[in-house]
Design brief:
By secondary structure, this protein is α/β, with parallel strands linked by helices. It contains seven helices and eight strands; from the N terminus they run ααβαβαββαβααβββ. The chain has helices at residues 10-19, 27-37, 54-61, 73-81, 123-133, 153-163, 176-181; strands at 44-48, 65-70, 88-92, 109-115, 134-145, 186-195, 198-206, 219-222. The chain has an eight-stranded mixed beta sheet, sandwiched between helices. Strand 4 (109-115), helix 5 and strand 5 form a beta-alpha-beta unit. The longest helix has 11 residues, at 27-37. It starts with 9 loop residues before the first helix and ends in an 18-residue tail after the last strand.
Amino acid sequence: MIPRVARITAAEWNSWYTAGWPALITDKESEYFRRTVQPRPGMTAADLACGNGQWTRQLAAWGVKVTGYDFSGEALRQAEAAGRQDGLSYTQWDIDAGAIPAALLPGSLDLVTCRHALPFLEHARVLTDVGRWLKPSGTFYALVRVAASQDNEAADDDAGAETGSVQEPFHRAFTEAQIDGLGTGWARRTTYRLSAHICGIVLRGYGDTAMTPRHAAGKADRLPAPAATPPVSALDERRA
């Protein structure tokens, strides 16, 4: 079990983003996301804990109308400085402690994403809120770090060296058991590994009692590797 740690303040996040956040979007992640979620023009989305907006801008480039939400004013300043696109906006929001923005109405979204941030949030409550915001056909996508085990500890150490200054408390992870539990209350869950230490999670059908009891974990699929994978960075060359 991962021990509880103190909540990171907005000022601390501002300092982290000022120091420079490593580029984490890879061709491999984009490919798996397109295969599993199938983003398309006209979708509406929220990107939770969007940081400096790299993923938010990627969604907009696919034609998705998206708002990025983040706690850090510095992260959002960097996101705004990167330029606007059609259908792209940003809003500052403390996801754990702030009032839910008026734009996040029940049944209003096709897609909610949250990359690298779920272990920092009150994730059980966040997933309940996400389930309400999504349309019945909607999808939740998360990218999370997997806590080191005896099998992947060495790979994690190597990855830390490759990414430079990524250190706790800004690099939290879920255990395998916690990741399995994220399917509770959802009709369908797909998981896949992008590396030994990074896992993608796709959830659909929140509270769909016609398909699965609300209290039961959703049916899980393990997505196989694609037939052809574009070149990726050294960070993502390892497989679990």
